[in-house]
Amino acid sequence: MTAVVRIRAGSAAPVVEDEIVEPPGAGEVQLRQTAFGLDRCGLVPPAVGRGFVPGIAAAGQVETVGIGVQGIRPGDRLAYADLPGAWRAHRNVPAHRLVPIPDDIDDRTAAALIRRGLAVHYLLRRLRRVQPGEILLATGAAGSVGRLLSQWAAAIGAEVIGAVGSVEKAGIARANGCARTVVAGSDDSATQIREAVGELGANVAYDALGGEIFARCLDCLAPTGMLIGFGDVAGSPPPLPLERLEAHSLILARPTLNAWTADPDALIAASEELFELVGAGKLRPGPVHTFPLAEAGDAVHALLDRRNATYLALTD
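The structure assignment produced for this chain is given below.
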């Protein structure tokens, strides 16, 4: 028997229960999971009215491997992202979704960063390979993804303009690589952001918010610029006529992490680059605030509090 966190149908409160975990199947690895990432995406139930196990990212140590698994041995420290149902003390995971954790990265940091870091990697290095000197607009720049994105883009040599929701968050964004910040109100966001970006416009805009701000970011782009929407904290983006793109030859993208990490080799390469930058101090996540697995309910409350500016993890 091993512990699992479950949210039952009709309830928002996580409870810790026991479950039986079978031996790993062919191509699978059984992890003793020691740390779990907290991410809003991991709190979305798979279907309305059904109970589920939260979480989509974790780190831990290999206990056993299934038939056909090569290159992974008991005792190895591994992590994964974007696999729903992560909050359990033991879990069987497809081997091709796992990445090694370097010795200088602890499990809770790996669990807290893996999904966000892999997302920033494909956003900056693959979907749109940002170049030194480019102007980059980031909404939600003080958020957990926004801070990593701003740090990484600044390390590349891009000029990052961060849009945030308060003066306090503007300070956080500047401390994490934003050259300039704008505190955008709900009614005049487009004007304020456009003024902050400047007359030339941004070469690329990364929108973590969605809603109306997604469409407003289009007006902040330079000709041939690219708008990438990867979040929906403010709701789903509105429909956009193609004519709005054609006028300045703009490019629009709405990507998902799962699609960009489906190739195992690409996944490993991305994780190696991510952990190398963390180990070198070029990405600075700061302290990871942890909760024991038994206090998953408190952890969820902390995650949903948008004032919280720390990286969160559960530990077993």
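Interim note for the steering committee: The longest helix spans residues 107-127. The longest strand covers residues 28-37.
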